[in-house]
Design goal:
The complex is a heterodimer of chains A (310) and B (370).
Chain A: H1 18-57, H2 74-83, H3 90-126, H4 132-144, H5 147-168, H6 177-202, H7 205-213, H8 218-246, H9 250-255, H10 263-269, H11 277-308
Helix pairs in contact in A: 2-11, 3-6, 3-8, 3-10, 4-6, 6-8, 7-8, 8-11
Chain B: H1 2-23, E1 48-53, H2 62-70, E2 73-78, H3 82-90, E3 98-99, H4 103-111, H5 124-129, E4 147-159, H6 169-173, E5 179-182, H7 185-195, H8 205-218, E6 222-226, H9 230-236, E7 241-245, H10 246-256, E8 261-264, E9 271-277, H11 286-296, H12 299-309, H13 316-320, H14 326-329, H15 338-342, E10 345-346, H16 354-367
The chains are: A mainly alpha (310), B alpha/beta (370).
Chain lengths: 310, 370
């Protein structure tokens, strides 16, 4: 045959007919394209199929979340009835309280993480102080750390701290929303800082210098120049932080106190009996809410990009 | 004469409805919050009780009724497993007054000094409403740390259209059709040991190996080792018989209302568990915790919990007063004789033999073709 393996290394120049080589390349390309198509399609499939199933079973007319019994909207009705303070089942009321706790923790920790993360990103990008590189590395550590390590170390930290305070103060402080929010800030602040830093690296430093040249002080430069330019980065970081906070179980559980049951803790607590489509309905609503938020942030980012094209 | 006839007739007419009623008993009316006669001791108004439990392991109105009767606020938090509860309390109790661990977890918590002793004199319902078979068990021999709440067994759930009656583990092992077993090592291995006449909590390597061989021989029809969702597989028709906890099967039966399924405790015996109420060390209101435990043991309150959750109740006063729904009372967990109950057993800590169980179970899961 024309394309014997021995001929391959020197094939570049002549001996193999050009058409055969082209054919072989075409087949290879087609195979590669097929492989890419299959792998990306299956990627999307595995990403979305569970979510589609979750939404589907939120309309299941039965208590099961994996066997279909018929269509109903009663799980949604239960949630809305409970939200409107009509008569509702004990479980739905507790579920909504857990959602409320999750939102409280998520919003508070996101706000703090955004403020801290942005300042950290600014000082890392622009500051010139000793140990800057170490701080940079430390920032990545909390992203890499296993959650369980973080949960336990934070729990030990608060126990020791509260025991210490308890020696002087009566009553001894107890874990609660405060400890959970601090814990969530600890593991989300790095994500915000990393995203904002990427945005800062993208920003033209001349803009800031030009403003300084025109006599603007540091504070004015930050609010009028830097902040609007990095806002999409902050929003993206905030969304990331909020999502991470919302579905965290391990750190939350270790730092929880009386009356702080969040949605993930509530859902895991159903394992004793059974998970009902109640959970699917709430998850679907939260999915809708987060999609809405992502849509808004994309819109913001887009408008901002257009503004920048001057 | 005429008058007596009239009187007799009148009495007869008046008595007729009563006679008819006796012949055809009144339909069961489930007790509601209005039927609770338990009264709260004075002096707790405005106080707070912190309860720590699995999410839906309680009646729908249980907490609201207690808040109303005592004028207190109940804060309800959840955990996902006994292990999580133990881990949380080991770090220091943030202020929980009542928790609901399973028997083996009570033993661990008590051993580590994480539980307060309970003064049974402050819980009058304990002496009157809880039968002797639930008192002084291995996890709390001196009745100091725990008050039984609900119990459960791991038996056989089955499709009555496929198999008429189940009385023995052999009905499961010899069944010619799809079945599902528990996925965890201890439950099924204990049945293997039991059937061979060994201690279900054996630590003897030879006995454990024998149980493995016995189960391997019986595993021909196993299509699935489930992780505690066996009732869903049964309901979906994937299997005809399943080894599962009674409460899960009964909850499914109550929701399905189809009469296609039933649950049986095999006559040879089966794994048993009991959830208990405990007062952790560091509770912020132990006095109110005692009151709450007494309230839970009230017959009406206990019956409402059982009717809502379908978990087997152990409040004898509630059973005797006919407060538990007849569908539940007809199930095998309430029909268990004293001899049959004596053959039930708890799964206890086996120490280092745990590894032998895990190895044996791995072989079964691989070789059974799962």
């Amino acid at each position: 045959m024309a394309s014997s393996p021995a001929a391959l290394p020197s094939a570049v120049s002549s001996s193999v007919p050009a058409t055969a080589r082209r054919d072989r390349d075409a087949v290879g390309r087609a195979l590669a394209r097929l492989g890419f198509t299959i792998s990306s399609l299956s990627g999307y499939f595995f990403l979305w199929a569970p979510i589609v199933l979750l939404i589907l079973f939120s309309f299941n007319d039965g208590r099961s979340v994996n066997t279909w019994f018929g269509f109903t909207t009663r799980w949604y009705e239960g949630i809305f009835d409970s939200a409107l303070d009509k008569q509702s089942s004990f479980q739905t009321a507790a579920l909504l309280r857990a959602v409320g706790n999750s939102l409280l923790v998520g919003l508070a920790s996101t706000a703090i993480a955004c403020a801290l993360g942005t300042t950290v990103a600014l000082s890392l990008a622009r500051g010139t102080f000793p140990g800057r590189r170490w701080l940079d590395a430390l920032l990545l550590m909390t992203v890499i750390f296993p959650e369980i390590t973080q949960g336990i170390s934070l729990a030990i930290f608060f126990k020791v701290a509260f025991d210490g305070i308890g020696l002087f103060l009566e009553p001894r402080p107890q874990p609660g929303f405060g400890t959970i929010i601090i814990g969530h800030v600890v593991f989300t602040v790095s994500y915000v800082a990393i995203v904002v830093r990427a945005r800062l690296a993208d920003m033209n430093p001349r803009l800031d210098e030009a403003a300084a040249d025109l006599g603007a002080d540091g504070w004015t430069r930050f609010w009028l120049i830097t902040f609007p330019l990095i806002l999409p980065g902050i929003v993206a970081g905030a969304l990331l932080a909020f999502t991470l906070s919302l579905d965290d179980f391990v750190v939350t559980f270790f730092l929880s106190g009386v009356g702080t049951t969040t949605l993930p803790v509530f859902v895991y607590g159903l394992l004793k009996v059974s998970v009902t489509p109640d959970i699917n309905a709430v998850s679907t609503l939260m999915l809708l809410a987060s999609m809405l938020m992502i849509g808004v942030s994309l819109l913001l980012q887009n408008r901002n990009n257009q503004d920048r094209n001057f | 004469m005429k008058k007596t006839t009239f009187t007799f007739a009148a009495v007869l007419v008046l008595a007729l409805p009563l006679l008819a009623q006796n012949a055809n008993p009144t339909p069961f009316v489930a007790p509601t919050s209005a039927d609770i006669t338990w009264t709260c001791p004075p002096g707790f108004q405005g106080q707070q009780l912190n309860v720590y439990n699995w999410t839906t392991y309680i009646g729908n109105d249980t907490l609201a009724d207690f808040e109303r009767l005592c004028g207190v606020t109940v804060v309800y938090d959840n955990y996902d497993s006994n292990e999580s509860l133990i881990a949380r309390l080991r770090q220091g109790n943030p202020g929980y007054d009542v928790a609901f661990p399973t028997e083996y977890a009570v033993l661990i918590l008590a051993r580590e000094g994480l539980l307060q002793t309970i003064d049974m004199n402050k819980i009058p319902n304990y002496a009157t409403n809880i039968p002797k078979r639930w008192k002084g068990l291995f996890h709390d021999p001196n009745e100091q740390y725990s008050v039984p709440y609900l119990w459960g067994s791991a038996g056989i759930g089955y499709n009555v259209n496929k198999i008429a009656e189940v009385t023995s583990w052999n009905d499961l092992f010899n069944y010619n059709g799809p079945t599902a077993w528990f996925g965890d090592p201890r439950n099924m291995m204990s049945v293997g040991l039991l059937m061979l006449g060994h201690d279900p909590n054996s630590t003897n390597p030879d006995e454990i190996r024998a149980a493995r061989d016995y189960l391997l021989e019986k595993a021909a029809n196993v299509v699935s080792f489930h992780s505690d969702d066996g009732q869903a597989q049964l309901e979906a028709g994937n299997v005809d018989m399943v080894v599962e906890y009674d409460g899960d099967v009964y909850t499914m039966m109550a929701e399905c209302q189809c009469g296609d399924f039933d649950y049986a405790i095999p006559q040879e015996g089966a794994p048993l568990n009991v959830a208990a109420m405990v007062i952790p060390t560091g509770a912020q209101n132990p006095a109110l915790a005692h009151v709450f435990i007494d309230y839970i043991l009230d017959p009406v309150v206990g019956a409402m919990i059982v009717n809502d959750t379908s978990y087997p109740g152990l409040n004898q006063a509630a059973i005797d007063a006919g407060l538990i729904s007849p569908e539940l009372l007809a199930t095998s967990v309430y029909q268990l004789s004293e001899e049959a109950f004596a053959r039930m057993y708890f799964l206890q800590d086996v120490g280092e033999a745990e590894q032998l169980y895990n190895d044996a179970w791995d072989e079964i899961r691989i070789l059974a073709g799962q």
